[in-house]
Every structure is written in C-alpha cells, then in structure tokens.
Amino acid sequence: MRHLVRRVTAAAIAAAIALAPAAAAAQAKRGIGLIRDAEAEKLVRDYARPILQAAGLGGANIQIKIVNDGSFNAFVADQRHIFINAGTLIDTRTPNELIGVIAHETGHLAGNHLVRLREEIIRTQILSAIAMIGGVAASAAGGSGQGAVASVLGGQQIGTRSILAYARSEETTADRAAITYLDKTGQSGKGMLDTFERLADQQLFASAYGDPYMMSHPLAADRIAALQEVAQASKNYGRTDDPALQLRHDLVRAKFIAFTGSAQQTQRAYPDADGSLPAAYARAVLTFRYGDPKSAVAATEALIKADPKNPFFQELKGQILLETGTPKLAIEPLKKAVAMAPKEGLIRVMLGHAMVASEDERLLKEAVKELTKGIGDDPDQPIGYRQLAIAYARLGDNAMADLATAQGSFASGDVKAAKQYAERARANLKTGSPAWLRADDIVTYKNPIR
What we know:
mainly alpha, Zincin-like
C-alpha cells in the first residue's frame, strides 16, 4: 500500500459535491491524497466491471481511485474517474454494499450528471445575478439601502438552494439507476438499503438541527423510502455474496484498517480471540507498522502457508523486506507475487524497485525490464519512473535516465520539470526513435485550456 497526492481542480470538486466555490478551492489546494494498493484496486475493478457494462460504459475506461480519507464518501469529478474513500471500503461490511456505492456513482456517470450540474450552476448564477441587480435597481429608484442588501443576500440564498435542490434530484436519479444496474447483473439492492440505514442512524441527530433544503444529498431515510419497494420486489433481493468474494472483501477491509488506523483501532476490530484469516492479515500489517521486521515477516509466512495462492500475501512479505532495509530478500516473494498476478503493475514496479535497491549491478537490466513492463501496465506510478531513472543512470544510459525522470515528473504533475528533462533527453536520443518520440510528446505538450 502506497500513498500519493493528486490535484483535482476546484471547479471539478465543486461540481462533483456541490460545495461553495471557496470550500472547493480550499480542498483542491490541499490536494486529494490517494492510496495505491494492488489488492484493493483489483477488488473494486472486479466489482465495477459488470456494473459499468450494465450501464453501457464497459468500453469507457473508467478508473476507480481510492482516496486516503477515513470518512464514508464516494464521488465523481469528471467522466473518467470514480473516487472512493478508504473509509467506504472499511465501513462496507459486504461486497454487495460496496457494489451498491459503485453502482450509484456509475449512475452519475451514465446520466452525465456532472456536466448537467455545471450547466445548472451557470444557469442559477445568472438568475441570482438578475435577482441581485433587480434589488439594487429598486433601491436606486427610491428604496432603502437595507432593501438592496436583503435582495442581494436573498438572490444568493435562492441560487444556493436551487443548486442543492438540483443536486438532490440527481442523487435520487443515480439511486434508481443503481438499483437497475444491480438487477441487470443479478445482484441484490439490499446492500444499498443497509448502507442507507446506517447513514440514517448517523443523520438522526444532525437532521434535527439542519435545514434539509441546504443539503446536497437527500436524507438517508428518504432514500430508503424511495428505493425499498423497488429493491425488495426484485427476484435478486435475497441473493447473497459468494463466500470467496466475501473473504476477499474482508481481507481488504482488514488491510485498510491496519494500515490506516491506529494500533488500538485495529486491536479492537480484530481482538486476539479472532482466529480468522482477515484478523491474521491485520495483525501482520500491525506488526510491520509497530513491531519488528522479523516478527512481521514470520506473520506473513504464516499467511502464505494458510493460502499459498494469494499473491498479495507474497506482496506484503516483499514490501516488508524492501521497506525495512533488506531489498535483496524481497525479490523472491515479489517474483512469486508477479507470477501469480502478472497484470498488476504496482507489484511488478515494487519488484523492479527491490532489484535496483539491492545494489546488485547484475540485476539492473532485469530491473529495467520489470519497471518498464510495470509502468506500461499502470502508468500512474511516479516511483516506478524514479527507479527506472536510477537503473538507467547506473547502466550509463543518461538519455534514457533523463527520459524516465521527465516521465515521472509528468506523472506527478510537474510539467515544467518534465519538459526540462525531456528536452535534455531528446537532444541525446536518436531522432524518430520511440524514446525520442516520447520525449518530444512531453516537450510539445500544452496544458489544456480550462
């Protein structure tokens, strides 16, 4: 599990979650911290695939990103990404509950709600401006200054309420679409209802003191009332999750609780009396974070013995060895993990990283091969480009080292640095070669006009 920070524009956040522009700008300035984890990402991809196909988005290359935030939330910020908080993975008890969340966000994408919400924001801003201008004009014609101020504030409040009302209607539409997608894929809507029931319990106190017209989402109790009859009428309502899928879900929850929570939180969730595999997984991660490396490796070896075909247990063992100063020992378990999960670019990049960090010059060419393949399968890995640059530099290929550095800077969003390194790489690469073309693409890149 690795952490990254990405920037999402203030406009995108505002349109996605109907925040005031100032709040959206503040969130964008902080950046959105992402968690990269091969096991969790594979799980949510497997959850999303049939839902996206049912929505007619199977070929749209929708990516799901996990946000490093412990609260329960999910949102879309453009037409290509669904963002799910780590807290949502932790709080959903079954695959069906998390699939319901994904189905809801897919409803927003399929309904083109983000574009429509932006259009509504523009329309409402115009109407609010007209209301404010009218109030000021009335004051100038003989009304009081206080009346003008009231008109301005009233126009702003009407605009805000209008946008939020529109957002609530889109949430309701996405809920209904989600139930349709679940039914089309032979899955139950019960997970959605269970999630809303938990949210309703949390909102019970807050709603007594809040204005329902100043909320971006309908109250959970209202959402239950709107969906319950339709969901329960489906022939799929009584279906339960496959036990193997439930175990995968439980393992990811255990990993996230142990990696993102405190030792006390993890111990409360998985007391010593819990002899399950997810509990053992959580304790292995906890030992890695707070204990000694030798005990952590022993804990992962016990996991591997319990399930030798699980690539993510091998990955965890390799990660522990790599990050505790024994990268050469990390190579063997990471090779096993790659053999079992050859399409997981994150694991392959970690293998290449271990080879570079081993300082064994004989492994550098193999490291370049693994890093190049890993980045090719999953380009959003700045650390992969950094390790590739180190490997090329140690092999004496400075032009390719500069290109890898440029690509890593570009992946991190540092376009200025990327262009500088790409120019240097392009000057020393064979004109027209694939590497030269990649460098040229970065040099000639122009930021999109917003």
